[in-house]
């Protein structure tokens, strides 16, 4: 039996179901990159606010990256994952995936395909 925790978002105050259970299952937020310092937020965020906050943090970081600092950046040091997240790693344009700079930075190198958001 899974015991779902109902929490209130520390940003919008809406109730939401936390994926952490008393049985040890992990929350959906663990699918996102580990970019938050726990002191940055008061408590958990709902999926909408979490996605926005995560995207904002990533955009702030990406804005500081230059081609000279892209190699060996902190995004490339994150644990590898096959999970890509719409709005964080990519968006759709005319039915095609367009990978964002964060996706490229996590990969750690330029693929030489003239990607629209290549930070290298």
Automatic annotation (TrEMBL):
It holds the Pfam family DUF5522. InterPro entries: DUF5522. This is Cysteine-rich CWC family protein. It comes from Flavobacterium laiguense.
């Amino acid at each position: 039996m899974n015991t779902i925790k109902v929490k209130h978002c520390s940003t919008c105050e809406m109730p939401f179901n936390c994926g952490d259970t008393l049985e040890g299952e992990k929350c959906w937020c663990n699918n996102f990159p580990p970019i938050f310092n726990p002191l940055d937020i008061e408590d958990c965020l709902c999926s909408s606010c979490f996605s926005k906050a995560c995207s904002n943090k990533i955009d702030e970081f990406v804005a500081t990256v230059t081609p000279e600092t892209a190699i060996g950046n902190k995004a490339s040091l994150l644990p590898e994952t096959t999970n890509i997240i719409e709005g964080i790693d990519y968006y759709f344009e005319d039915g095609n995936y367009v990978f964002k700079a964060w996706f490229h930075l996590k990969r750690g190198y330029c693929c030489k395909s003239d990607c629209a958001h290549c930070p290298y």
